[in-house]
Amino acid sequence: MLVPIPEAVTLIELFREREQRFALAESCTCGMAAALIGQVPGASEVFCGSAVTYRESAKTDWLGVDAADLRQFTAESREATDAMATGVLEATSEAHWGAAITGHLGPGAPIKSDGRVFVSIARRGADPGGTLVATDECVLQSMDRIDRQKEAAEYFIRWIFKTARAAEDRV
Fold first, then answer.
1. Domain-by-domain residue ranges, the chain?
2. CATH architecture of 6-170
3. Cα-Cα-Cα-Cα dihedral sign, residues 8, 37, 123, 25
4. pLDDT digits over 57-89, tens only?
5. I need a labelling partner for 27 at 20 to 30 A (CA). Which of 19, 81, 120, 157 fits?
C-alpha cells in the first residue's frame, strides 16, 4: 500500500499557487509517482496525468522519442529522459511542465546501470515541446525491485518540486 508523502502534497500546493499544471512520463516507476500524487486531495486541479512508457515502443509511439536515439543511448539514459520530458509536455496541451523518469532497476541490469535513474523536466515556452529546464541522475540505495520503484518515485516527486520551485524563483 502506498502512503501519501508530504512532498506530493507540497508539489500539488506549489502548482496550485502558481496556477500551473504538470504531466509525467514514467518508465522505471511504472506509474508509482502518479499513484503517490493522485492520493493528494485536489491533485486533479494541477496534475494532468502520467504516460507510463515502460517499453521502448511506447516511448516512441506515445512521446515521440526517436528510436535511433534509444538504440544509441538506451531507453535508460539521460537522453531518453530528456526526450520523454519534452514529449509528454508536447502531448499534453494544458500542461505547463513535463517531467520524466527512466532507469534500470534490475534484475539483469548491467553493473554500471543497476539502480541508476535519470530525471528531466521541461517547461512550456514558445516551443510546443517546451524547453528542457534540468536533468539529474541518482543511484538508488534499495536493492529490492519494489523498494527501488518506491524510492525512485519518491525521489522523482521531491526533485520535481525542488527543480520547479527553483526555476520559477529565477524567473
1. 6-170
2. Alpha-Beta Complex (3.90)
3. positive
4. 999 999 999 999 999 999 999 999 999 999 999
5. 19
